[in-house]
TrEMBL record:
<protein>
    <submittedName>
        <fullName>O-Antigen ligase</fullName>
    </submittedName>
</protein>
<feature type="transmembrane region" description="Helical">
    <location>
        <begin position="16"/>
        <end position="35"/>
    </location>
</feature>
<keyword id="KW-1133">Transmembrane helix</keyword>
<dbReference type="GO" id="GO:0016020">
    <property type="term" value="C:membrane"/>
</dbReference>
<feature type="transmembrane region" description="Helical">
    <location>
        <begin position="256"/>
        <end position="275"/>
    </location>
</feature>
<feature type="transmembrane region" description="Helical">
    <location>
        <begin position="225"/>
        <end position="244"/>
    </location>
</feature>
<dbReference type="GO" id="GO:0016874">
    <property type="term" value="F:ligase activity"/>
</dbReference>
<keyword id="KW-0812">Transmembrane</keyword>
<feature type="transmembrane region" description="Helical">
    <location>
        <begin position="132"/>
        <end position="154"/>
    </location>
</feature>
<feature type="transmembrane region" description="Helical">
    <location>
        <begin position="408"/>
        <end position="426"/>
    </location>
</feature>
<dbReference type="InterPro" id="IPR007016">
    <property type="entry name" value="O-antigen_ligase-rel_domated"/>
</dbReference>
<feature type="transmembrane region" description="Helical">
    <location>
        <begin position="174"/>
        <end position="195"/>
    </location>
</feature>
<keyword id="KW-0436">Ligase</keyword>
<dbReference type="InterPro" id="IPR051533">
    <property type="entry name" value="WaaL-like"/>
</dbReference>
<dbReference type="Pfam" id="PF04932">
    <property type="entry name" value="Wzy_C"/>
</dbReference>
<keyword id="KW-0472">Membrane</keyword>
<feature type="transmembrane region" description="Helical">
    <location>
        <begin position="72"/>
        <end position="94"/>
    </location>
</feature>
Length: 471
């Protein structure tokens, strides 16, 4: 009995993996506040247990089978190089404490990402993972609906009691909106790319409609007006290649249009019925003021060196000036680091010393965050592998290019492709993405799909073991 507890079997580790990804998506909601700076979340507990179990298995077996991860070996190698480079950059970081904290987050998120291609080695594993993630996502959306009606916020939320905003399990509305735009391609395409029971399709449709209502309630410009339409455009381009032309009949297209129109009517009706006048007006003003937002960003010169003695508030608030000055300060400190990066998380420590006045410290731009914190080398490698991942997903989308790909994996490829391309814009919404688990999970799912697709091309039987009848 003791040996069974000390030596976790593969099934036990897989179950712990499923628990971990569920808690990862819930973020800081489920946990215990130990200190002002540290929250012992269930995700961190599950992560530590899973890591410990893998170390024990590695020590006892004197090795670990990872040959099936060969298709994504360059991603694993890059992540290792990234962490090592981050450790080296601590030697020139101005705030060692912030650097170590950021490095810990980076290490955890890298391992979270790689846990998907490691544990998702069959279609059954992939399907279970997606079902769990959908269940958690549905819970997040349902609470978001409740929150929008009663204005009751969870402890992690920065919103005050009664404040007309929706954050669900996240700290702010932009994080919630980005999570929705990452998940929505999976929800939307599941309705016609997977062979599901009618009741399951109805459930998915309801959650999809509710997620659009919650997204509208967040008032996130970048996600509502740019990220989601970009992801939808990718789906429109990819689907004719991924679906049998026999299914693209006018009847089926008409059903799809009807479902979209019905969903739009339901979302509008819910916003009128449930959102307060303050919340509706706030969302309407924010979305309509998008043009003015960009006009505000053009106020003042886009000069890195020129100093500003005062913070210029725009007509649409502090946000446009903040985002502009955060970009300029980031580039300024990147130049001063000789393009090697300021060190993990150290842009936050340097930001008050920048030439431009700001009221925030986080860059609010994931792409700039990588560039400024880690320099040009890491940024170029990250983006090169990101585009390569998109290309590999695209190759799995087409029926002609990859006839060996199963419908389930093809669905995953289409959805991951749309989600990751949409994130080009969605990545500028959260204050920081270093511990934004939905993004890292999306990356991990894409890597898992690439492995499954590559193995299916080679005719590996183990990939389809336990395949569900989902397509």
């Amino acid at each position: 009995m003791v040996n069974e507890l000390l030596v976790p079997r593969q099934k036990r580790l897989e179950h712990l993996f499923y628990v971990m990804i569920a808690f990862a998506l819930l973020g800081p909601t489920l946990g215990i506040q130990v200190t002002e700076e540290f929250n012992l979340t269930f995700f961190r507990v599950a992560f530590a247990l899973l890591t410990g179990g893998l170390i024990i298995r590695l020590a006892l077996n004197k090795g670990m089978e990872t040959s099936y991860m060969y298709p994504v070996r360059w991603y694993a190698a890059f992540f290792l190089f990234w962490v090592v480079y981050a450790m080296l950059s601590l030697t020139w970081a101005v705030d060692l404490g912030k650097g170590i904290r950021y490095l810990v987050f980076l290490g955890m998120m890298v391992l979270l990402t790689l846990s998907f291609p490691f544990f998702v080695r069959t279609e059954k594993n992939y399907w279970i993972s997606q079902r769990i993630l959908f269940g958690v996502f549905a819970s997040i959306i349902c609470f978001g609906v409740i929150e929008s009606i009663f204005m009751i916020h969870l402890p992690p939320s920065r919103a005050e009691t009664g404040q007309a905003t929706v954050t669900s399990v996240f700290t702010n509305q932009n994080d919630l909106a980005t999570c929705i735009t990452l998940a929505f391609p999976f929800v939307a395409t599941a309705l016609f790319m997977l062979k599901l029971k009618r009741k399951h399709k109805l459930l998915i449709y309801v959650i999809g409609v509710l997620s659009m209502y919650v997204l509208l309630a967040t008032g996130s410009r970048s996600n509502t007006l740019f990220a989601l339409p970009l992801a939808a455009l990718v789906l429109l381009i990819a689907l004719p290649f991924a679906i049998d032309r026999k299914k693209l009949t006018w009847k089926n297209i008409g059903k799809g249009i009807a479902a979209i129109l019905a969903g739009a009517v339901i979302v509008q009706a819910m916003s009128v019925a449930f959102l307060s006048d303050e919340a509706r007006e706030k969302t309407r003003t924010k979305l309509r003021g998008t043009v003015d937002f960009f006009k505000d960003m053009q106020q003042g010169p886009w000069s890195v060196e020129e100093r500003e003695e005062e913070f210029i508030r725009g007509a649409t608030g502090e946000s446009p000036t903040n985002r502009k000055n955060l970009i300029l300060n980031g580039i300024y400190f990147l130049q001063k680091s000789h393009y090697m990066g300021v060190g993990p998380g150290n842009i936050e420590a340097l930001m008050p010393e920048g030439p431009k006045k700001v009221t925030k410290r986080n860059l609010h731009n994931w792409w700039l965050e990588i560039l400024v914190n880690f320099g040009v080398i890491i940024f170029v490698l990250y983006m090169a592998l990101y585009f390569w991942l998109l290309w590999r997903l695209w190759k799995l989308v087409g029926l002609k290019n990859s006839p060996e790909t199963s419908p389930l994996v093809r669905w995953g490829a289409v959805s991951s492709l749309a989600a990751l391309i949409g994130y080009f814009v969605g990545g500028v919404a959260p204050s920081t993405a270093i511990h934004f688990t939905p993004m890292w999970i999306s990356y991990g799912l894409a890597l898992a799909v690439v492995i499954l697709g590559e193995l299916q091309k080679k005719g590996s039987q183990s990939v389809t073991d336990g395949r569900k009848s989902t397509a």
